[in-house]
Amino acid sequence: MAQLLVYYAHPGHRHSEANRAMLDKAREVSGITLVDLYAEYPRFQINIDREQSRLLEHEVILFQFPMFWYSTPALVKEWEDLVLEHGFAYGHDGDRLSGKTMMLAITAGGADEAYSASGYQRYPMRTFLTPLEQTAVLCHMTFATPYVLYGALRAQANDQVEPHAAGYARLLQALRDGRYDFAAAKELDVVTAPDLDQLIEA
Fold first, then answer.
1. Is the dihedral of CA 62, 131, 140, 198 positive or negative?
2. pLDDT tens digit sequence for 122-147
C-alpha cells in the first residue's frame, strides 16, 4: 500500500465536465488523501506548514488539473513557489521529498495530433510539462508518466469523459495498492485510459 495524495486544482470547477467527473470518481476511492486546492485556498493564502506535512506523510503526490496556457492553473504555481522551499524540497539540506513520486493527471483542450511538430501546438505534450518534470527532479522526486485526456472540450460529446474518469479511478486504486507498473509507463510519453490495462496488475 502506498500513501497517495491527490491535489485537485480547477478554478472553473462548476463549468468543468471532464475534471469534475474525474474528481467525483476520485472521491469514491478510499484510502487516499484528496485536497481541492481552490476550495481550501480560495484567496491563495496557502498554509505552508500544513502542505509540507502532507507531502511528508505521502509517497505519491498527484496533481490533477486542466492545462491553462501550456501550464498549470495559477494556484498550483503559487503552491509550488511557497511550499517547495529551499532547505525543504531542494538546495542545501533540502532533501525531505527524496524518493517520492510526482504524477500529473491533466486534461488538454486540443486533440492528441495537435501536440506534435506538425500540429498547431507545435510541440508534444511532454515538452510543455518540462518545468514540472524538472521541478520533480530538483526536489529529488521521480516524475511519473502523466495521465492525459486530449480533446477535453469535446470529450463529453465524443463519449470520452466516462471511460477516462473510470480509468482515473482505476489508476488511483492501483497507485494506492502498489499495482501500477511505473517502469512500463515510463516507456510511454503519456498514459491514456486504454493504456491502463497493460499498466495495472490484477
1. positive
2. 999 999 999 999 999 999 999 999 99
At which residue does the C-alpha cell 479511478 appear? 169
Domains and CATH numbers, the chain: 4-199 (3.40.50.360)
What is the CB neighbour count within 10 angstroms for residue 9?
24
Model confidence at 92, in pLDDT bands (50, 70, 90)? very high
Which backbone phi and psi does 34 adopt, to 5 degrees?
A: -120, 125
74-83 vs 48-57: helix crossing angle, rounded to 10: 80
Residue 102 reports pLDDT greater than 80: yes
Burial of residue 105 (number of CB atoms within 10 Å: 0-12, 13-18, 19+): buried
Cα 139 to Cα 97: distance, rounded to the nearest angstrom? 6
Q: Which residues contact 84 (CB under 8 A, 6 or more apart)?
A: 90, 135, 139
Tell me 144's DSSP state: P
Under a CB-based contact definition with an 8 Å cutoff, are residues 37 and 79 in contact?
yes
Q: Strands, E, within the chain: which ranges?
A: 4-8, 33-36, 60-66, 101-107, 142-143, 147-149
pTM of the predicted protein model: 0.95
Residue 168 · residue 53 · CB < 8 Å: no
